[in-house]
Design goal:
With 363 residues, the protein is of the alpha/beta class. It is 39% helix and 15% strand.
């Protein structure tokens, strides 16, 4: 059984002092009483604490910070704010500050002189700032993989986005949907790319076409409403709309209300109306199975948040656990800086499906 490496926080807790006091005591710096200095060093010796090479490098450089690069549209999205708070919380546990980088900030070399590592979240292949960040000469962790030209080695924390959209599509099919549609995010991020390709693959596997409507990566409810109106005008048989962008689902609900499409379970949520073996069942009266009975519409979202939970009705969504995701990204970077993980480590982040009234009664 491998024992966990003793870190500075362990020493501080055992000595009954703050982490900064423990650091000053061990380095012989700061205004620390001699008795405290002696006690901290004795505790460190007893616990077998050894400063790692990354920590020594941080002290020499004097940075003590990591950079956080978010998509340009992130400032108005609930998802990225929660992610950032999670990253800050985890980095501070290792004594690191988090510096939020401007979307069009300094070149990578200049940034590297001010931080010890970088978190690059949802990097777009078309974002001109990303290659310089990935090749800045400091450890990098990306939130989702970078699909652009390869740069220096980088670690990543990834979600199985194909599996999460598949779960949503399976769910609406089980609730009776025969003609699902996706408001798909534009852009070249791994998340956007995975959602578009998964929708096509699911449709081929089930013998139905998933109607795609491309919307901005950070589409507003107004943009989602307009896209849904256009979608339903062009494809009136659509009976389920999955909206990808964070916070956009209320726009789908508004469009449904304006068009007289009641949101919730189709035909009372009879599971017998779901897709079976890729073939829609014929309606009991022998009519067209492609026409939504009663004009009902199921609504779901690829990203959970305050907007989906507080909507009327509440919207079924994939909970990507953004605060935990931010923590996971920061933890991996801390582990790399402390030589506890290789610089190209990839870790998987788990998601959950939250079923709510917008797709009928939870299973």
């Amino acid at each position: 059984m491998t024992s966990r490496t003793v870190n500075l926080l362990d020493v501080a807790r055992a000595a009954g002092v703050s982490k900064s006091t423990a650091s000053d005591a061990l380095q012989g710096s700061g205004r620390v009483a001699e008795a405290t200095r002696v006690r901290v060093r004795a505790v460190a010796e007893e616990l077998g604490y050894r400063p790692n090479s990354a920590a020594r490098r941080l002290r020499r450089a004097g940075a003590g910070a990591v950079g956080l690069h978010l998509p340009a549209t992130a400032t108005r999205l609930d998802y990225y704010m929660n992610l950032a708070f999670g990253a800050v919380e985890r980095a501070q546990e290792d004594g690191l500050d988090v510096v939020l980088l401007a979307s069009r900030g300094a070149p990578g070399g200049r940034i590297a002189s001010r931080v010890d590592g970088l978190l690059v979240i949802d990097p777009e292949a078309g974002d001109s700032a990303v290659p310089a960040l990935l090749d800045a000469g400091v450890p990098v962790v990306t939130g989702e993989r970078y699909l652009g030209p390869a740069a220096g080695p980088s670690a990543a924390v990834v979600c199985d986005n194909a599996a999460s959209l598949t779960a949503l599509l399976d769910h609406v099919a089980e609730r009776g949907a025969r003609h699902p549609a996706l408001l798909a995010p534009a852009g070249s991020s791994a998340w956007a790319t995975a959602l578009r390709s998964t929708a096509r693959a699911w449709g081929l596997a089930h013998g139905v076409e998933v109607a795609l409507r491309t919307v901005p990566f950070a589409a507003t409810p107004g943009e989602a409403e307009a896209a849904t109106r256009e979608l339903l005008a062009a494809h009136p048989a659509v009976d389920a709309v999955i909206s990808a962008p964070d916070g956009s689902a209320p726009g789908v609900l508004r469009a449904a209300a304006a068009l007289g499409r009641p949101v919730g379970a189709l035909d009372g949520g009879d599971p017998g109306r779901a897709l079976h073996g890729g073939t829609p069942r014929r309606a009991p009266d022998g009519g067209d199975p492609g026409v939504p009975p009663g004009g009902g519409l199921l609504v779901a979202s690829c990203v959970d948040g305050a907007a989906t939970r507080g909507a009327q009705p509440p919207v079924t969504a994939v909970d990507l656990r953004p605060a935990a995701y931010g923590r996971a990204c920061a933890e991996l970077l801390c582990d790399i800086l402390a030589d506890r993980a290789a610089p190209d480590t990839v870790r998987l982040h788990a998601w959950t499906l939250e079923t709510r009234a917008s797709t009928g009664r939870p299973s």
